[in-house]
Design a protein that fits this description.
Rossmann fold; six-stranded mixed β-sheet; six-stranded parallel β-sheet; about 20% strand; globular
Amino acid sequence: MTQRLGIIGYPIGHSISPIFQQAALDHLGIDATYEKWEVTPEGVGDFVNGLRAPDSLGINITVPHKQAVIPFLDEVDEWATAAGAVNTIVNRDGHLSGHNTDGPGFLRALLVETGYDPKGTRALVLGAGGAARGILLALARGGVDSMVIANRTLERAETLAKLASDNGVKSEAISLSGDALTEAVSGADLIVNCTTMGMSHGPDEHGSPISAAQIPATAIVNDVVYTPLLTPLLKEAAAVGATALGGLHMLVYQGVLSFQMWTGQDAPVDVMLAAATAEMTSRGA
């Protein structure tokens, strides 16, 4: 029996998860298909309940359903509970468990691709949305020493700063501009962009939240945006010799963790990264 996997969202046409997940399944000879399904908010409950079927291994979830799926699950793990979002559902004999691999995938991508270990480091997170929350928790649990959250709306940055403090991390909330931002950038070991600045077809697709003049050459700069592959921020980082990592790696590594939950096998990371990169390149990203 061919097993089913996939991803749901609304809309979902942009997702490249089927490309690299199917490449991994095929590489390992696993008899399963990975598809994408556009599910309306009203249809989430029925869709999730349908995942209890014997031919379903589970799914990934993207916006706007990461919270909406939770009431329909039998179990939600501690990480997903803390993040307040589920991006992976696993079916075991009709029992549905919810997980969140975004934070762990983010940390794994950084470790493997740049050697970054958060212990004792200073991090600057740009933006205060859902992605920033998961990344903040990952950094806090990884042992980061201090964190600055910069956002256009200071109140939202303050909410995340409190979350960091509640997890034992010295934290500060600042505006996404001005001298305080310049100072925070200069003192950061890791800079993570969780805003949409620089995203293709976004409201500020040619913009970067910080400039090359602000970025220290010793910093690691990670942009969670993956369209385009080389964002304006990554170009600014490269101009001063800083280590730069794009969002495609986080996307693939969170998918790697999901793959291992569903199949119980080690994921072929190189195959998945190559497939994802080829797809984005073919799209002109």
